[in-house]
Write a structure and sequence with these properties.
single chain; alpha+beta; FAD/NAD(P)-binding domain; D-Amino Acid Oxidase, Chain A, domain 2; about 30% strand; globular; binds flavin-adenine dinucleotide
Length: about 350
């Protein structure tokens, strides 16, 4: 059973819903390989009473561009991704221009393109399909706010007996799962656990452009700005400097940044974008793990039945299939967990205890 707050701010409803294989660590590459496998089979896995969901998965690829300063890192990451079987290629500026003649590449020395396994989908439809499937299997959703945990201690280890709700209801539980997104730190705090997760505002801008960009992938510019097709137009976003990235900034879109930075930078990279029009924007929170920007999945030694599925740091939609599995495994016996993780996905690397053992 899970309690949800009736709020429109949940990150899952505000996401850009994209998936990539181009990560720089083994664990994230493996998680994404698992994620794309799940997304490709969503129709089959989440079919419900004859209703086969279609989340519009489009494997349009990610294209990372690098200047000379970033070339070595791009090559290093590429080698690791290939080791894990990712379908990615490195492209010279000449090869890039041949594929994407609408790009201006004067400062670019290398590109890395995902040929399959990367792209975007309708995140809201995925959320709806998951919810319907869960309900069809007996899950009950409660529109309420969790306000505390009833716990008991034994040998210095807490056990959650129940979750207390704003309405006064008390929900007894065998396991409690902290799936609080950007607000997960407060929930962990009820068990005396310090979870390094905060909300970081990220804006998505919705663009219309008279310039067509045939074959446009999800472009990660050398500036860090990203852009991808959406419907008849495009969406794009950026990561603010650390100095302008307060925790839980109000969810107002950063229009000033669009005018002063994003538009001029994009128009330099894509000359056809000089005539683009901003159609709208929205903002949501990345649930950022300030320790190492990776998900935190599993149990913590301080509490034997509070399961974490937190801190996905802007990758949560693509990582959620592996995240659920990790959270579920935490509730299984140790032997089952070990057998499964060895065969499928080394989720131990994401365990909630890694800060104690200094592993990243
Ligand atoms: C602008 C933006 C773009 C993104 N783009 C991508 C992308 O392209 N690809 C990708 O993979 N990921 C992306 N992400 C990240 C992804 O959306 C998140 O990682 C993911 O949705 C997190 O899911 P979650 O279930 O952990 O959190 P949420 O979806 O935020 O859900 C948490 C839920 O917990 C509820 N809650 C919290 N506290 C309580 C309480 N005390 N009681 C009851 N309920 C509570 C909240 O109301 C909320 O409904 C993006 C995120 C944003 C904001």
């Amino acid at each position: 059973m899970s309690a949800t707050r009736p709020t429109p701010r949940a990150s899952s409803a505000l996401s850009a819903s994209s998936i990539r294989q181009q990560f720089s660590t083994d664990i994230n590459i493996q998680i994404s390989a698992f994620g794309i496998g799940f997304l490709r089979k969503v129709g089959q896995l989440l079919a419900c009473h004859g209703d086969v969901p279609d989340i519009g998965l489009h494997e349009g690829g990610y294209l990372y561009l690098a200047t000379q300063a970033g070339e070595a890192t791009l090559r290093e990451n590429h080698a690791l991704q290939r080791q894990h079987g990712a379908d990615v290629v490195l492209l010279s500026p000449q090869q890039l221009v041949a594929r994407f003649p609408w790009l201006a590449l004067q400062d670019v020395v290398l590109g890395s393109l995902g040929l399959s396994g990367e792209g975007w989908f309708d995140g809201y439809l995925l959320l709806t399909a998951l919810r319907k499937k869960a309900q069809s299997q007996g899950v009950r959703y409660v529109a309420d706010e969790a306000v505390g945990l009833d716990t008991a201690a034994s040998d210095g280890v807490l056990h959650v007996n129940a979750v207390r709700l704003q309405s006064g209801t008390v929900l007894p539980c065998r396991y409690a799962v902290n799936a609080g997104g950007p607000w997960a730190e407060a929930i962990a705090g009820w068990a005396g656990i310090d979870l390094p997760v905060v909300g970081k505002r990220r804006t998505v801008f919705n663009l219309a452009s008279p310039a067509a960009l045939p074959g446009c992938p999800l472009l990660i510019d050398t500036s860090g700005i990203w852009l991808r097709p959406e419907g008849q137009g495009f969406i794009c976003g950026f990561a603010p400097d650390a100095d302008n990235d307060a925790d839980f900034a109000p969810l107002e879109p950063e229009y000033d940044a669009f005018d002063s930075y994003i538009w001029p930078t994009l128009a330099e990279r894509i000359p056809g974008f000089e005539a683009l029009r901003l159609q709208g924007a929205w903002a949501g929170y990345y649930e950022m793990n300030t320790f190492d920007h990776n998900a935190i999945v599993g149990l913590h030694p301080a509490c034997d039945n509070l399961v974490f599925a937190n801190g996905f740091s802007g990758h949560g939609l693509q990582q959620c299939p592996a995240g659920w599995v990790g959270a579920w495994l935490s509730c299984c016996s140790r032997a089952a967990t070990k057998a499964w993780t060895c065969r499928h996905c080394p989720l131990n690397a994401l365990r909630a205890t890694r800060r104690c053992s200094k592993r990243t």
